[in-house]
Amino acid sequence: MLTLLLAAVVAVPQSPLSTDRVALDSELDLRVHRQTSPLVALRLSSPVPTGLPEGSVELLQELARADTEALAHRFGVALELRHDPGRAVITVSGPEAAFDAMAAILRRATGEPDLSVASLRRARARAESRVLARLEQPGPRLRGLLHHGVHGGREPLGAEATGLPPEAIRRIRSRLYDPARLRVVLVGDVPDPVIRSAFARWPGVGDPGGPIVVDSPAVAARPQAHREWGGLAFPVEADPAVLAVTAELVRHRVARSALRYGTAEAWPDPAPVLFVLGAAAPGDAEVRTSAGISELPVRDSVDVAPDDMRRYLRRLVAEAAALTGPAAVERARAAVRRRLLLEARTASGKAEIIGRVADAVGAGVSPDAYLDRVDSVRAAEVRALLTRVLETPAVTAEAR
Amino acid sequence: MSSPGRSGPSAASPSRRPRLAVVALAAVCACGAPAPPSPAPAPPAPSSPARVAVVEDPEATALALGVVVPGSVWELPGTEGLTILAAMTVLETVRPALDSLGARAAVTCAPATFSFTLVAARDVWRPALTAFLDGLFRPAPTPAALARARTRLEASLRLDRASPAWQARLAVRRALYADSLSSGWVGPACGVPEALALLDTADVRAGAYRFASRLAHVAAITPVEGASVEALLRDRLPAGPRPVIPRPRTVEAGRRDVPRNTVTAWVSVAFPFGPDAEIEAVRLLGAVLEDAIAPGVVRPESFAAEHEVERHGAGGTLVIRAVTAPSAAAAYAERIEALATRYAVVGVPAATLDRVARRHRGLRLRQLAAPEARAAGMALQLALGGRPDPWPSLDLTGDQVRAAAGALGVPARSVVGPAPVEAGGPP
Fold first, then answer.
1. What is the average per-residue pLDDT within B71-88?
2. DSSP structural state of residue A42
3. Which residues pair with A94 in a beta bridge?
4. What pTM does this model have?
5. Is the pLDDT reported for residue A316 higher than 80?
6. How far is CA A351 from the centre of its chain?
7. Which residues of A touch B362 (CB under 8 A)?
C-alpha cells in the first residue's frame, strides 16, 4: 500500500469543551472555545426573571426578528431565537468572515426594540402563535407547568405579554437583557481584540423597577391532548453531573416501559430538578399499573387515569433506583458523555453544549470539568440521589 | 479580522492559533497491494487511484465517516427503490449495536451514488466503525430489519410523492436522460411505495451486495488515532481497480411538461456539465442564477427558488428550480437560460457576484458544518477522482464563475403545473 501524505495545518489536541474568558468593557460574561474551523458560532442566553408576563421572551424576540433575519440572510448566517424553560436563547452561526455581523445580530436582538405600530402588530401576532403552541401542545405545556410549579412565578395561562403597551415592553426588555445577566459563548477562531471590539460598549439598560401589571391573558391557551400525559418534577439538591447521569438511568427505564412516549431529563438551572414525562394512549389496552413493571412488554401500551399515570411514573423511578448498580451507572455515564460529544461535533452544537453546561453549573466550573465530573459519578451517588428523589414530594401535572 | 463578509481565510498569527502542529491527511491507494484472486487477472494498473482518505482533526469531538457506493441507476422497472430499501435494511440491522454505543448512521440516495454516514464519539470509534462497516460490507438483512426499513421508507415516500417538488425533480430528470438505456436515470432514485411492497428479504440481500467494499470509496474525519482508523479502513477495503461511478449514456436538451392541477408552476432548468468543471464555481453560479429569480418586490410572480447540484461519473447537472405563477413559468425558464448564456460570455456583474458570494459562503459552509457531511463530500470527491478536501476553497473569482458558466451544456427543461402553460411577461 502506498500512502500519500498531504500536509494540512490543524490544531493539536485540546480539551473538547475548554473555554477562556475574555474580559470586556461591559458586564457581559463571554467565554471562548477556540477552534480552527472556518465556521463561528455564538450563543447568548439570559435567565428569564421570575414574574415576567407569559410570552415576554417571544414578544421581544419577534420584535427583533425582521431586522436580525435580514442581516443574517445577507451573510448566509443561521439564526435561532427560542425560549427554553427559564431561559431566552439566541444562537447564530456562520462563516468566520461574518463574525462582526453575527455579533451585531446579537446586539440588535437584545437592543432597543422597534415599537412602531406595524412592528408591534406583526410581533404580537407571531409571538401569540408561538406562546399558544408552547402552552397547548402537551409536552411543552407540561414542561412549562412543572417549571412554574417548582420555581414559582406566574402561572402560564396564555399569551399575556402580547397585549402590553410599549412602555411595559421596554421595561421587560430592560430586565430580560440586563447585560449583567447575559452569557455569551463563542466557538471559533477569532482574535481577542476583534472579540472585544465587537462586544464593546454593550448597552446597559436602566430598569425603572416596579411591577408589570397584567390583568388577564390577551389570548388564553386552550390545551389539547390526544393521549394521557403526565409529568413529575422532583426538586432535589444535586450535583449537576450526578443529576444528569441519574436522569439518563431513569430515561433508560422509562423508554423501555409500557408508555407510548416517555423521557426523563435533568433540569439543573436555576435549581436542580429531575423531570419525568410520559404519555399513554387511552383505551387501547387494559389498565396495567397494577402489574409488575418488569413484566410489561417493551413498547407495549398502557391505559391509565392521571393518578395512575403519576403512580406509574413514580414506580418507574423506583424501578430505575432498584436497578442502579455499577454497570448501569457506567452505561449511563457513557451515554451522557457520548451524547454531549456528538452534539458538540459542529461549531453551533459546541456553543450550545458549552452554553448549556455553563448555564447549569455556573461561571465557576469549566465545561471540561463538568465532563470529567460526569466520568467520575459513582453508583453510590446515584443511588443516594434517587433515594432522596423518592422521598421528595413531586410537583405533578397532566394533560388529557 | 476585518469587515464582515470579506472573503478568504483569516490570516494565521501566533496569537490566534496558539497550538498549531502539522498532521497528515492520508489518502491510501491500492498501489503495490497484492491483486485480488481472479481467474484471469487484468494487468496491473500503473497507478491505482485512492479509495480511502483519513483526516485527523484533534479538535473534533467525534469520528465521522462517509462511504460512497454506486447508486440506484441499475434498478429495473418494478424494482425502483430496491437500493434504498437494502440500504435502510442494512442500517436497521446494525442499529442496535450502534445505539448501544451512542453512534448514529444514515444514508442519502441519488441515481449515481449512495452516501452512508456514521458518527461516533471518540471513545467508541473502533467498535462503532467495525460494527458499521461489517454490517455494510457483509450484509445480513433480517426480516424484522426489512419490515422496519420498509415501514419507514414507505411513509416518507408517500409524503414525498404527494409533493410537486418530487414531481419536478423527476420531470427534469426525464427531460435530461430520456434516451438513456437504464431506467434508473429517469426513475425515482429513492423508489416508489408500490415497488417496495413487492420486495422480499432475498431481493434486499441481492440489492445489498451493491454495497460491497470493492465498490466503495471511504473518507473519515477523526479526532485521534488517524493511523489506526486508516488501518482499519484499509483492512476492510480490498485493493483493486477503481469502482466506476455510473454515468448516463446520453444527455439531451429535452422538454417535459407535466400537467398538474396546482395553482403554481414548478419550473426546472437542468444544465449538464462535464468532469472538468470546477464544482464549487458551478455551485456559486447556481446561487447567482437562483438569486436572479428569487422572490422579491420586483418579482411578485416568483414564490420560491433554489439550486441543486447532482453529480455522476461524467460530471453532473446544475438544476435551477423556481415556483412561479403558471403564466410566468416559461418566461422564468427562458430567463434562467439566457442569464447562464450571458454569464458565460460577459461574466457575472461584480456587485452581484460579491453580494451572492457573501451569502453563498455562509450557506455552503453551514452545509458542511457537520463532520459527517464533510466526510461524505470527501468520499464523493474520491469516487469522482478529485482531491478530498474537507473544506473546499470558496475563494472564487469572477473568471472562475464565468468559466463555470461556459462549461454548462445545453439545458433540459420541465414545468410541472397547470396546462397549457402560457408565456408571461419577462420576470
1. 88
2. E
3. A40
4. 0.86
5. yes
6. 13
7. 75-77, 94-95, 98
